Fold:
Amino acid sequence: MHIKIDMEIPRWLSRLLLVSTTAGIIVAATWVHAAVPNTFRPGDTLSAQKINDNFAALQSDLTALSNQMAVLPRVERLQVNAPCTASPCTVTSQSSNWYSAVVRLDTGSYQVIIASGTFSSAPSCFVDLGKATELFEKPDVSNRATTSLFQFKSNSIQIATTAQYAISNTFEIKWVPMDVAFDILCVGPR
Structure:
C-alpha cells in the first residue's frame, strides 16, 4: 500500500523559509564569545594597559561580528490594519523606518516608497491580505481577495488588490479593485 501526498508550497513561502533558515545558520555560526585577556578580582591592582587590552579585545570581537552581520539579508515589514481609502495610508505596525510613505494611488492600488539606502538592490516582497474577504457582508456572495505585486522600481513597490466575488443566483464572477488592509514583508540585500 502506497500513500502519495502531493503538496504545493507557494513560491513566496519557500523563498521566505530559505532566507530564514540561511540567516539562522549564519547567525548561529557567527556567534561571538567575547573573551578578554585580563580578568580582575576584588583587591587586584588595575593598570591602564590591562584595561586597554580588554577594550581592544572587545572592539576586535565587535568589529568581526559587525562584518559577519553585513552579509545577512535585511528583512523589513509593515502593516496597514484598516482598508486604506485615502492617501497616505495609516501604517499600524512596522519593523523600522524603512519606508517613506504608503500612498493610495486609486481604489485597490498602492505604492510603498522605500527610504533611500534601505536596500542595496531590489528586495523580494510578499503581500498578505489577511482577512480582506471579511469585508463582504452579503450572504449570497462567495468571495476571495487577491493581490498583485508589481515590480520594484525607483525605490518603490506597486501593489494592486482585487476581490473576486460570485453572485450565487446568477453564477456571475467579477473581479473588482478593492481597498483592503494588508501586510508587506520585504527581504533584500543591505
